[in-house]
Specification:
This protein has 25 helices and 24 strands. The protein is an alpha/beta fold and 737 residues long. It comes from Pseudomonas zhanjiangensis.
C-alpha cells in the first residue's frame, strides 16, 4: 500500500510527463514482476502509470491552441455556486459546446458587470477564451496547478450572453438556499454563514481573509474535514449516548447504526457543500474511520488513514497538486500520532491544548515546504475559535438553515450564529493586531528535513530518548535565505504581475521596488503577488518605493505593499495624483544616490502632458553594467530624454509602456543600444502589447527579449554581465510552455 501511494504521489514532482508509450508500458512491466513476488515495485509502477494517465487526460482536455485568445459563441450549464462580486461574477460552465471546435469539459469564466447568474442555468455566451495560464513568481499561488487539479481546461471573459433556461436541479436549490442565507439578518456575517453551511466563500471580504490568515483560522470558515467530522461525531455520539442511557432499542445493535448515521450525516453535509474535492476527501476519511470503528479496530488506526489516502489518490491523482491535500492528511496524521497509544484519559482542556500544540509544531515544516504563511498567534486563536465555531456556531447555523421554512425560528438561530461570529471576528482582530502572519523565506531541502525531524521528535511522548534534541533540529528556521549581492552588484527581479509592472532592485544592504502592480475589485497584485514574493526573497523592508506614475497597473498595489512592508520613502512621477495615505514625494530629474557601490539616478520630463509621459525613469549602474527602467514613457518623452544630455547607454532596458506602438522609437533604441530587454505584460492582453513593429525594432538591434508571459518572473545579476533567468525555466508538467 505504501508503494502504491508512493507511485501515485510521484506525479507531484514531475518536470514533464513521460511519453505515452512509456507510462502505458509500465503496468505491463508491473504484471511481469508479480510472479517474482516483487509486489512493492509492481504496485509502485501501477500507481505511477495511473497518475500519469490521469494527468495526460487532464492536459489533453485543455483548450486547443488555435482557439487561444479567440471570442466564440458557446452554450453550457452553470455549475457550482457563482462567486458574486461587486463588479465581476466568476463561475464555472460545464458541457460547453461551440460550432467552432471541441471545447474543454469545464470552463472558468468571469463576467465583468454581468447579471447575477444562478447555478443550474443554461446560457448562450460570447466568451474570449484562454488556455490555462497563471503567474509564476518566487512565491505565489500556483494558479495553473489549481486549474489542472480542478480539471478546468480554459478560462475566459464573457462579452455578452443570453439565458436559455432557468435554474433547476440540486444546484439550483443550493443557489436558492444561499440567497436566503445571504438575505438573513445575521449581524453582517451572512457571508460567513454561507461559507460554513454551503462552502461558498465568496461572501467573505478581503479583510476577512486577511484576518483569518493572520490568525491561522482559515480552516474554520471554509467547509473542511473538521466541520464534516464534527457533524458525523455528533450523530454518532447521539446514538452512543442513547445506548449508554439504555434508551436505544435492544434488538437493534447501536454501533452499526451509529456508524451508518454518522456517515449519512457526513454525506448530507458534503452534498450541501457541493461535494468539491476537499469535501469528498473528508467524506472518504470519515467513512473509513467509521468502518474501522465498527469492524476493524484490531488492525490499528494507521491503516484506515492509509486506505483513505489511497482511495483519494486512486479516484483523483491530481489531488496531490493542491496544498489542502497535504495539510488535511498531515493534520489527521499528527492527531493520530498525538493521541494514539497514550495511557489514561486527558481532560478536555488538555486535549484541546495538546491538539493545537501538535498542529502548530507538526504542520510547521509542511507550511514552510508549501510556501504558506505561518501564524505565530494561530495556537492561541484556534484554542478560542475551534470550540467557538465547532460547538456553537456550526450547530446553530445548520439548525437555522434547516428551520428556515419555520417562521422566525430559523432566522432567529441564524441571527444568533451571526452574532457569535461577529464577536469571534472582533476577538481575532485583537489577536491579529498583536501578531500577524509571518511568511518566511524559502528554506533549502536539508533545512526542511531537519525541521521536520525536530518537530516529529518534539511530538513524541515524554519518555522517548533524545526528545529534547528536537529543539536543536529546529534551528535551521533561523537560516538566512540566499546570500545577498556582493558590493558593486545588484539583484534585479522583474516580477510576473500580468498587465502591470513591479521590479525589485536589491543591493547588499538596501532594497528598492519600482512600481507595485495593479489592483482590481477582487484581486490586488500588491497583496497577492508582490508582498509574498518580496518576503520569499527575504526582503523585510524597503528603502524606497518608487512609483513611476499613478496609473493603476503601476501604482494600484502600492497600498497593499506598504501594509505588508515598511518603506522608508515613497517617490513618484505623479505624486499629487496618488492617494494621500501613500505620502509620496515628487520624483525629479537629477536625483542620484549610491547604495553598496551601486549607483542610482532618476529623470522625469518636466513638460510632461500626460501621466505616461510623467513617468519617473530610473537608471541603475553596478560595476559598469546598466539597467534603465522607463515606466510608461512614450516617443515624445523618449525624445525629451534623448535631448537631456544624459548618457543613456544601457545593457538592460525595460521596454517602455509594455511594448506599446507609441513607445520604443528607433532613435531611442539606437541611443540606448541594449543587449537585452524586459517586457512586463499580461498574456493576450486587450491592448495588443507588445506591438509587432516594436518587437521587430528590438530584434533588429539585436536585443534578447525576456517576456514575463514566456519566462515568468525574471532574475538578473546586475554587475555580473550574465544572462537573465526566468522562473518558467523550472519545469513543471502542468505549466503552459
Amino acid at each position: 500500500m505504501l508503494a502504491l501511494a508512493a507511485g501515485l504521489l510521484l506525479l507531484r514532482w514531475l518536470p514533464a510527463l513521460p511519453p505515452t508509450w512509456l507510462f502505458c508500458l509500465l503496468p505491463v512491466l508491473g504484471l511481469m514482476l508479480l510472479p517474482f513476488r516483487s509486489y512493492p515495485l509492481a504496485l509502485l509502477l501501477f500507481g505511477f502509470s495511473w497518475a500519469c494517465i490521469c494527468a495526460q487526460w487532464a492536459l489533453d482536455d485543455r483548450l486547443a491552441p488555435e482557439l487561444d485568445g479567440r471570442t466564440l459563441w458557446l452554450q453550457g450549464r452553470v455549475v457550482g455556486l457563482p462567486q458574486l462580486g461587486d463588479e465581476v461574477v466568476r463561475f464555472q460552465l460545464d458541457g460547453a459546446v461551440s460550432r467552432h471546435g471541441k471545447l474543454p469539459e469545464r470552463l472558468r469564466l468571469a463576467w465583468h458587470g454581468g447579471p447575477a447568474l444562478r447555478a443550474g442555468e443554461h446560457w448562450r455566451l460570447a466568451v474570449r477564451l484562454k488556455r490555462p495560464r497563471g503567474l509564476v513568481n518566487p512565491q505565489s499561488f500556483d494558479y495553473e496547478a489549481w486549474l489542472l487539479a480542478q480539471r478546468i481546461g480554459a478560462t475566459g471573459t464573457v462579452k455578452a450572453g443570453e439565458r436559455l433556461s432557468a435554474a433547476g436541479g440540486f444546484d439550483g436549490w443550493r443557489d436558492g438556499l444561499r440567497r436566503r442565507l445571504l438575505a438573513s439578518e445575521a449581524w453582517g456575517r451572512a457571508g460567513a454563514l454561507s461559507a460554513l453551511v454551503l462552502g461558498d466563500a465568496s461572501g467573505l471580504s478581503t479583510a476577512d481573509w486577511r484576518l483569518l490568515q493572520d490568525t491561522g483560522t482559515v480552516h474554520l470558515l471554509v467547509i473542511s474535514g473538521q466541520h464534516i467530522g464534527l457533524l458525523a461525531g455528533l450523530l454518532y455520539g447521539l446514538v452512543a449516548g442513547l445506548a449508554r442511557l439504555g434508551w436505544w432499542p435492544r434488538g437493534c445493535p447501536w454501533l452499526p447504526c451509529a456508524c451508518a448515521l454518522g456517515f449519512a450525516g457526513a454525506l448530507a453535509y458534503g452534498l450541501l457543500a457541493g461535494f468539491e474535492v476537499p469535501v469528498r476527501r473528508a467524506c472518504v476519511m470519515i467513512g473509513l474511520v467509521l468502518l474501522w470503528r465498527w469492524r476493524f479496530r484490531h488492525l490499528g488506526i494507521w491503516l484506515p488513514l492509509l486506505c483513505a489516502l489511497l482511495l483519494v489518490l486512486l479516484v483523483e491523482p491530481l489531488a496531490s497538486l493542491q496544498p489542502g491535500f497535504w495539510l488535511s492528511f498531515g493534520a489527521v496524521a499528527l492527531l493520530v500520532l498525538t493521541f494514539s497509544g497514550r495511557l489514561g484519559a486527558w481532560p478536555w482542556w488538555q486535549t484541546l491544548g495538546r491538539a493545537q500544540w501538535a498542529m502548530a509544531l507538526g504542520l510547521l515544516p509542511l507550511l514552510l515546504a508549501l510556501g504558506l504563511p505561518i501564524s505565530a498567534s494561530g495556537p492561541l486563536a484556534n484554542l478560542l475559535a475551534v470550540p467557538w465555531v465547532g460547538v456553537a456556531v456550526v450547530p446553530l447555523a445548520m439548525f437555522g438553515t434547516l428551520l428556515l421554512p419555520v417562521p422566525w425560528l430559523g432566522e432567529a438561530l441564524l441571527w444568533l450564529a451571526g452574532g457569535l461570529l461577529e464577536l469571534l471576528f472582533f476577538l481575532l482582530a485583537q489577536i491579529a493586531a498583536w501578531q500577524p502572519a509571518w511568511l518566511p523565506g524559502a528554506l533549502p531541502l536539508w533545512a526542511l528535513l531537519l525541521c521536520a525531524l525536530g518537530s516529529l521528535l518534539l511530538l513524541m511522548p515524554a519518555g522517548v530518548p533524545m526528545r529534547s534534541l528536537g529543539w536543536l533540529l529546529l534551528l535551521p528556521l533561523l537560516y538566512s535565505p540566499p546570500p545577498r549581492p556582493a558590493p558593486g552588484q545588484a539583484q534585479v527581479w522583474m516580477l510576473d504581475v500580468g498587465q502591470g509592472l513591479a521590479v525589485l532592485v536589491r543591493t547588499r544592504e538596501h532594497a528598492l521596488l519600482y512600481d507595485a502592480g495593479a489592483r482590481s475589485a477582487d484581486f490586488d497584485m500588491g497583496e497577492r503577488v508582490v508582498v509574498p514574493s518580496l518576503r520569499a526573497l527575504d526582503v523585510r523592508r524597503l528603502d524606497l518605493l518608487l512609483l513611476s506614475h499613478a496609473d493603476n497597473d503601476h501604482a494600484g498595489g502600492a497600498a497593499a505593499v506598504l501594509r505588508g512592508l515598511e518603506a522608508a520613502r515613497v517617490l513618484s512621477g505623479e505624486a499629487a495624483e496618488l492617494p494621500r495615505r501613500l505620502q509620496a514625494g515628487p520624483c525629479a530629474s537629477g536625483q542620484s544616490w549610491q547604495w553598496d557601490e551601486v549607483r542610482f539616478s532618476t529623470w522625469r520630463w518636466a513638460q510632461a502632458g500626460t501621466g505616461n509621459q510623467a513617468s519617473c525613469v530610473l537608471q541603475v549602474e553596478a560595476s559598469g553594467e546598466r539597467l534603465l527602467l522607463t515606466g510608461d514613457i512614450d516617443s515624445q518623452a523618449e525624445q525629451a530624454l534623448l535631448t537631456s544630455g544624459l548618457d543613456l547607454r544601457a545593457d538592460w532596458l525595460l521596454v517602455p509602456h509594455h511594448g506599446s506602438r507609441s513607445s520604443s522609437s528607433a532613435t531611442f533604441l539606437q541611443a540606448v543600444a541594449p543587449r537585452a530587454a524586459l517586457i512586463s505584460r499580461g498574456a493576450l492582453n486587450a491592448f495588443g502589447h507588445p506591438h509587432a513593429s516594436v518587437l521587430a525594432r528590438y530584434q533588429a538591434l539585436p536585443a534578447r527579449l525576456y517576456d514575463s508571459v514566456e519566462q515568468g518572473a525574471v532574475r538578473l545579476r546586475l554587475g555580473a554581465f550574465e544572462a537573465g533567468w526566468g522562473l518558467r525555466q523550472e519545469m513543471r508538467f502542468w505549466r503552459e510552455k
